[in-house]
Design a protein that fits this description.
Strand order of the largest sheet: 1-3-2
Largest sheet: 3 strands, antiparallel
Mean pLDDT: 89
Number of helices: 9
Number of strands: 3
Length: about 220
């Protein structure tokens, strides 16, 4: 018997939540393309979920900016353009710079040690030329740091908004600035600067390092096409 998907607390996802996961997975796997016009029935075919679940899903996607209704043309997946880049990275700046100050003051030393070790492992693998699965693992470690900082706030509203914005950041990366193996030393190096400030329990230094990291990512998104 195949068990239904579960959330991080081990609870089964409701059908509409499964449909949401199916949509975002299809979006990030590029089965659904940015800017694409799509109907509810096409979403049924792509995600494998019934029409009723898709109909319940659409208002949530519209509210989160992950789809929009175009009169007489159906629904449109968001375009990856300069406006999306500006909005998504501005959101990151406002949330993450403040969040890392909190994290630097309150984070569990064991968690900080885990984050450092995983970043160090990625850097060492890159230096050895061990590239098998390296890109996927580097992206996972990248996200782990940012999610740890956000989750430490203990604010479900911010956490959910951040997850939605991350999907938009991922779309931007897929379209223009995907993290390549050659970029691993610089990106992981920026992360290590953040981690070092956190280890020193220096909120201001952590905020400065996070600001610098986001600025570099924003410039990359704007300049690389």
């Amino acid at each position: 018997m195949i068990l239904p998907p579960h959330n991080k607390d081990g609870e089964p996802l409701k059908l509409r939540e499964q449909a949401y996961e199916g949509y975002t997975k299809s979006l990030l796997s590029q089965e659904i393309k940015p800017g694409q016009f799509i109907t509810q029935r096409e979403l049924v075919e792509i995600t494998g979920f019934p029409l009723g679940a898709i109909r319940e899903l659409v208002p949530r996607l519209e509210a989160e900016g992950l789809i929009r209704t175009a009169p007489q043309r159906g629904m449109q997946v968001p375009q990856v353009d300069l406006n999306l880049v500006r909005n998504a990275y501005q959101f990151r700046e406002f949330i993450e710079v403040a969040a890392v100050r909190h994290f630097a003051s309150s984070a569990d030393p064991k968690l900080i040690a885990i984050l450092r070790a995983r970043h160090q492992e990625i850097l060492e693998r890159n230096q050895r030329g061990d590239v098998d699965g390296l890109m996927q693992d580097a992206e996972a470690v990248d996200l782990q740091l940012h999610e740890a900082i956000i989750d430490a706030l203990g604010n479900e509203i911010i956490t959910q908004a951040y997850r939605v914005n991350w999907i938009k950041i991922k779309l931007i990366r897929l379209a223009e600035t995907r993290l390549y193996v050659s970029m691993i030393p610089s990106v992981m190096g920026e992360h290590m600067s953040i981690i070092e400030a956190i280890e020193k329990r220096d909120p201001e230094a952590a905020a400065i390092a996070m600001q610098a990291h986001i600025d570099v990512a924003r410039r990359r998104a704007v300049n690389m096409e």
